[in-house]
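Cross-posting from the modeling subforum.

Setting up a comparison between two proteins and wanted a second pair of eyes on the formatting. Protein 1 (sequence, then structure tokens):
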Amino acid sequence: MENRIGKIMEMAKNLNDVNEFFRNNDSVVAYLNIKITKMEKGHCEFSLPFSDGITRAGKVLHGGMIMAALDYAGGLTTMTVNEGIDQVTQELKINFLSPMYKGPFKIVSNVIKPGRTAVIIETKLYDNDEKLGVIALGTWYIIKDRIIEKK
């Protein structure tokens, strides 16, 4: 069975390669224009540019777009410790602390507790002035026997 996570982690040695992989294979990542800026075991950082396409009325980031970006960040951070072959988001809780409109934004994601069947991740989003705007806590379920994909 293909080990996608192993391939991505090997590719992560060159962030340009892993960014291109996700930009070409994940339409949400391509739409949000998220870029991985740091990737190591248990920790990842990302850049999210400001664009009108991800704002709501008032020109602040849309909560759903933030949720999608933090879900991606938490999932990729999970990959850095995942010993299985796939994973899915099991739960994601977000606290919106402040409207975000000063981009580009920085997303910082850390493993809180790695596990055999689940990984707990904390992810934060900061604006260009390093103001904390969002904090999330999520759980990713580790899959050891199948890859989740549309057939």
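Protein 2 (same layout):
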Amino acid sequence: MRIAPLLLTLLATASFTRAEYVRVEQDFETMDCASCATFVENKLTRNPGVEKVTLDARKGTLSVVLKPGNTVKFAQIRDFVQQSGYKPKEARVIIRGTPRTKVGYVDFEMPELRETIRVRDNDTVFRETINKKVEAAGKMEKVESKGVMIDIFVVTSVRVL
């Protein structure tokens, strides 16, 4: 019987060993079309990596909670909102992964998603967690870098897992 708690602990720890998005909240210009909002909600809900979708068309907010082990990228959600005819605005995300430094920049490596996110850490707290497994909250900004639009993760809080 003592094996069960150990097994549960190992399983819970295993779900934190990969890099992934945990939650995405995407703001957008408000929707006037109720059927469009339902379409967006239903389409995202069908994704196997999505646990829960909440859309408030009047406030212009989409909240997506992702399942452990998902392979959903932030850009997929933002781009889907845009392809549905709505202009994405600010987005807030929670991510699990490992911060790394490359050529003086801090990146958030998500190898399972084949994605690396550039990080802006205004108070350098994130730099203290380099090479550690963390869960970080922040907002995503789309900026131009060398003629290409890229997403920058602006850290607001971080905790070591």
